[in-house]
Structures are given as C-alpha cells and as structure tokens.
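Weekly structure sync, notes
Attendees: PL (lead), two postdocs, one rotation student
Agenda item 3: pending single-chain targets
PL asked that the sequence for the first pending target be pasted directly into the notes so everyone works from the same version. It is reproduced below exactly as submitted, 219 residues in total.
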Amino acid sequence: MNNLSPTIVRTVVAAATLLAASAAVHAEGSVEAGKQKAEMCIGCHGIPGYQNSFPEVHKVPKISGQSDKFIVSALTAYKKGDRKHPTMRGIAGSLSEQDMADLAAFYASHTDKTAAETASAPSDVVKALLEKGACASCHGANFSKPIDPSYPKLGGQHADYLFVAMKAYTVEGNAMVGRSNGIMGAVAKQFNPNEMRALAQYLSAQETELKTVPQSRFK
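Predicted structure, written out during the meeting:
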C-alpha cells in the first residue's frame, strides 16, 4: 500500500475482515419502505446542487448509488457520534436498524451504471498524494469499487464535500465537528488543506456511479 505505514495497512486489512464478517447480521432493507421513509432525507439529498452551510458552505453529498452497507455504516456512525454533524446526528438518532436498512436499500437501488475500471491519469502532484494516502487500496482503482462495501465510493462525489469530509477526520475534541475513524484519521492528517483540495478536485472529476435523484416534491 505504497507509503502508508505498516500499522495502518494492518488496520485496513483487519477492519475489512471484521466488517465482512459482521455484514450478515444487518437487517434486510426494503426499497419500498425506504422510499416512504426518505421523506426526511429529500429536503437535502433530493435537490441537485443543494448546499449545506455547516461547518462551511458545501454541497450535500450524492448518496444515490452508494452501497447499502456504506449508507448503514454512515448512519450508524452519526447515531453513535463518530460522525458529529448536528443535523445528521439528530436524524440518525431517530432511526432504528430497520429504518437504516430500508433507507440504504432505497438509495442503493438508484444505481444504473458502472464506473470505468480505472480512474483517469492524475497529475504527478496528485499521483504522489494518492500514493501517500494509499487511497486506491481501500477505495479501488476507479475510486468507485472499495475493498469493502461499507466504505464509500468517492469517484464523482462533490469536491467541496470531499474536502470538508477529509478535514473532519483531522478534527479532535470538538463536540460539533469531526469524524472518528482510526484509518481515515491517520490518512487525512498527512495532508494540508491545499493537498486535500487537490485530491478532492481529482476524485470529483472521475466517472461516477453516484448521483442526486430528485424526488417528486422537488422535481
């Protein structure tokens, strides 16, 4: 995994093994049930280009086309407080395991294409950053085929959101902002803000399986 430390490499492999072993215990999701429950989500995630102003202005992430296991993982992290965005934590805190599974099934069902097998060639500067973070080792050669489905697809995601997300992994001791993840924390702390922006711009320009699907209320 290139320049990533042996400790992080071992952690990545161990985490993927544990996540794969635990995947079978998740509730089975229903697309139709998720469609009904998504009423709480479409005010942000159902409007193309919609922006969030906290902790800084950025587009809300595209979640249609993410895997169901990643969506459950993210919602669980918000509910537990490992992801500290106040609005998302409040919403996730109201969800049961079945609710999360249904919402995940609904948004994962929007997948209608497959990204190219490999990403476009980066500049030398970005290539070095990608190798330093061993990004493809977890998120795939096209950044849309992660080694574990509970990891996010990054290719084609909004650049400003990716930047905010990476910065969040470097924040500690803040009750309102930050993300607790040993692997991503170690990776993100290797980069300064300009390097994060360069990575985010490159990843956002890749062919994507992600999109925002407008719901009936906002079409």
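Discussion points:
- Confidence is low (pLDDT under 50) at residues 17-24.
- The chain has one domain: 26-218.
Action: rotation student to compare against the earlier draft before next sync.
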